[in-house]
Design goal:
single chain, about 190 residues, alpha+beta, five-stranded antiparallel β-sheet, 2 helices, about 20% helix, elongated
């Protein structure tokens, strides 16, 4: 009979522990996320933001939904894809190019860039060798900072951040000679 009582107490303790874990793990807070991709320098409006409920530690540096007024009208310091949580460091001072990095623009014709490419993507810029050149194709690792599609010319212009020497080499490549490879996983 004492085993039955001990077993009953253990069952109740486990049930109480499960209820406690379930209720505390479900604590959520309202924070801001970007409603669509935003680029560096874009001035935030209410249409750019949406409120989401997340189970996040209070120390996570995201912007709480009640603090939306503190970011409205301020420029983005970095680019964020749609759905990304808005963190405090993403608003204000422009963070690109980072120290010891450079930025350049690359005009890429349709068919040489995946239509899904977005700000923040790690890419490889690959230059096709010029028929008159004796050297081979070049390839450079970069991070996409901004994307602009020019429908009238069927061209996508990427703002990319990369090493300064690489940026100079990419800028010297003839228009239309670069293809973009979007990288995934470990880069």
């Amino acid at each position: 009979m004492p085993y039955l009582a001990v077993g009953g107490v253990l069952v109740l303790a486990c049930a109480a522990g499960s209820v406690w874990m379930w209720t505390t793990a479900g604590e959520r807070r309202a924070v801001l996320a970007v409603a669509h991709p935003v680029s560096v320098g874009h001035v935030l409006t209410a249409a750019d933001l949406r409120e989401v409920q997340v189970g996040a530690d209070a120390d996570l540096p995201v912007v709480d939904a009640v603090a939306a007024d503190s970011v409205l009208g301020r420029p983005m310091g970095t680019s964020l894809p749609a759905g990304a949580l808005l963190h405090q460091d993403a608003v204000g001072t422009v963070l690109v190019p980072a120290a010891n990095r450079a930025m350049t623009a690359v005009a890429v014709p349709d068919g040489r860039v995946p239509p899904e490419v977005a700000a923040g993507a790690a890419v490889s810029l690959v230059a096709a060798p010029d028929e008159s050149a004796s050297d081979g194709a070049g390839a450079w690792a970069a991070t996409v900072v901004g994307v602009t599609t020019r429908e009238t010319t069927s061209t996508t212009v990427l703002s990319v951040e990369l090493a300064p020497d690489d940026a100079r080499e990419v800028a010297a490549v003839a228009d239309g000679q670069i293809s973009v490879v979007v990288l995934g996983g470990d880069r």
